[in-house]
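Could you join me in thinking about how sequence relates to backbone shape in a protein? We need material for that, and I hope you will provide a protein of your own picking. Once you have written the record down, we can walk along the chain together:

…
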Amino acid sequence: MNSPQLPSQNQKKSVHSEQMDFSAYTGLNRETLFEKLSTGGRGLDKKVVAIRQKQFGLNEVGQRATAWSTILARQFRSSFVYLLFGAALVAFILGESIDGSMILLFIVINAGLGFYQEYHSEKTVRLLQKYSVPSTRVRRENAEELVPTSKIVPGDFVIFEAGDIIPADVRFISENDLMVNESIITGESVPVKKIATANSEKVTEIYQANNLGFSGTSIVCGRCEAIVIATGRQTVLGGIAHLTSETKRVSAFAKGLGKFSTFILRLVLVTLIFLFIANSFIKGGRSSLIELAIFSVALAVSVIPEALPMVTTFSLSRGALRLAKNKVVVKRLSAIEDLGSIEVLCTDKTGTLTENKLTVAEIKSGQPNQTVFLAGLASSDTSQKSDRQPNNAFDLAVWEKLSVADHAKFKEYKLINEIPFDPERRRNSLLVEHQGERLLIVRGAPETVIEACPGITESEKIPLFQWLGQQGRLGYRTIAVATKKFDQPEDYQPIEEEKGLKLVGLISFVDPIKDSTLAAVRKSRKLGVQIKILTGDSPEVAGAVAHKIGLLNDPDNVITGQEFEAAKSSEQLSLVRDNSVFARVSPQQKYHIIQLLQQQKEVGFLGEGINDAPALKISNVGLVVQGAADIAREAADIILLKHSLEVIVDGIREGREVFSNTIKYLKITLASNFGNFYAIAIATLLIDFLPMLPLQILLLNLLSDFPMIAIASDATDPDELKRPKIYDVKEVALVATILGIVSSIFDFIIFATFLRTGPETLHTYWFIGSILTELALIYSLRTRLPFFRAKRPSATLLWLTVTAAAITIVLPFLAWSRHIFKLIQPSFSRLLLIFGIVIVYFIVSEIVKLFYYRFHSSPKTIT
């Protein structure tokens, strides 16, 4: 036999071209399929199998793992990390080993968190192998055998029964009452009837491929024979795996740090170059270039917010612990802050908003109990044929509606004949015998069953179809049950259904919305988070669910995957922005929708199936609920162990607290550091000696940053949590500049006050005054409100601030520290003067802050 005409897995192709085009196989008849894949009813020869295993490789979707050393190296490729390394190097050169060691500790913690996150995510694709069963029944050389799933090749003849997991993409060539659960691929909550005949029209969507089985899906009932058409990474599942593994997430947290580090680096470099040139030009030979260089580098170190990784680490860890109490697992710490930045939350429907379990909703019949009983009797897998509980979603819903006595009563009926559900007939039929009488039961689509009941008049059909229309608008699925006595001695024929049927009743089924969904949607709206549904289910069901939970006023306002795909690129962006519900979307379309949303928004995605993995990976925050597929859990950042979406609200709140405290730290440290930075830099141009020594600058930096770590535990004003916020460099820079100017003014007041007292005196009092003003600024900028109306600061922040202030005042009184840092012992009167300046500085800072926020009242949020 020749090799089938499929691309080799070893060929270099893009994500989309590497995946097999399944639509090419849906329209082939049995003979053409055999010819295309060079196979037949007796299966492949062993020699052909060996050749194809070499050509296509193993039936696995995994790829070579990235080395841990490569992942670790990635953590240090950041301009912010480069800044910190430079700061640590300068600290060690100047003999400040404590300061240098602290900076290195910050780097190690930050890199450790990043390494854990990325190394963990690299294992995502390997979990897909769990969806490949150890062995599969295959016919080769006209003999059936069990072979390892990894050894299956295109063209293999495979046999499946109820309970089997399909290990590759296959085309069915024969089937008997075959139903397949495709929810992990399509999101469709109801098992799908499969056929073995060719489709007359071209199929482009997975949910339309009713004669194909896809890797990872499972056989619910029936048995079948099939031919493998794709293995490994060429399967639909393989395409999802590749898309997931190739997706690299850049979180809002990482982007925010990158913006700030770039901003600080540029500002510092420009200022220092200007400072160095100006000093050399103005002072000429009077300045020591080496001393000026060391001073310039130390000054640069002082403005870098090196405690930022530590502050965020503590904030994130604190948030993770609090979420853990609500049974929320946070896999990527920075995802907590990203969660607070979410502007749009995209969610799957099945298993996320709904229970993924059909229940009987309403019964329209004069004999409701009899209607449900006959519907159960007509099941494709009731206990009148076996002792098993049914596993078809409709049958299971009916089974649970019936009483124990009804279940036992099934055994009184003898099965004579049956015709399984057929998509063309849209119904199934059973002929049973009970107490010597034969009864024909027909169950299926209401439109076809009603038309087969000649006793129903046109006027009687009107309320029936009105009820069906109402149930459809609610998103309910419906069936009709009809019967007739069957007295003919000859064998049953389908034509008997077309005459004499009597309608017993109609039944509607609902996939119930979870109790927590409505409350979660309401709270999300209060938090300013838009909700969008991306599902593989039908537009009718998706629209009905969205209408019930308050997302849509009109349940028909749903965009399908085909409509989205057919739109122009420019139109797709407006579609995803202006619409809330997308139905019949493929994994690739979910992925693309989130990509488009991310052009303007921070996006979170909540899902559960294999088909959600790529979308979970690319989103700014990936969330899954308990019971999600392994691959979905591994691709996600946050796992909700409760069956309640309300825990997402708690997570968003935690994220916004972390964000708020991070921004607090940046504003406080940049305002105070910029103030000192520019005051000291300008002062060097006015005097012949350095206004502050390099070691004093580094010590000032260490003591003022010491209590900043406690910002992570600080209380947050309620108004800060109402709307999603994003990193805004301009807003932070503006606050830092305005209050930095205030800080510089008071630095110059101290400078002017002690200028004529000598270098050591100026150094000492400016050193004390700079630290105390920075500590005071913490209590002003920690809130947008007047400080006396704000929430009380955390005890940790209070104690660390007092400790830093005490160390600052005590150091000049100790002989060893005066010697090391070139300080003098201050007088009591001059200390009181410094305290007075600090108090006035705090009052002025408060006035400027309140005046600023009055005209710049809200942080950057979505509108």
Summary: The first strand starts at residue 135 and ends at 140. The first helix runs from residue 15 to 18. Residues 6-17, 121-133, 382-388, 858-863 have pLDDT under 50 and may be disordered.
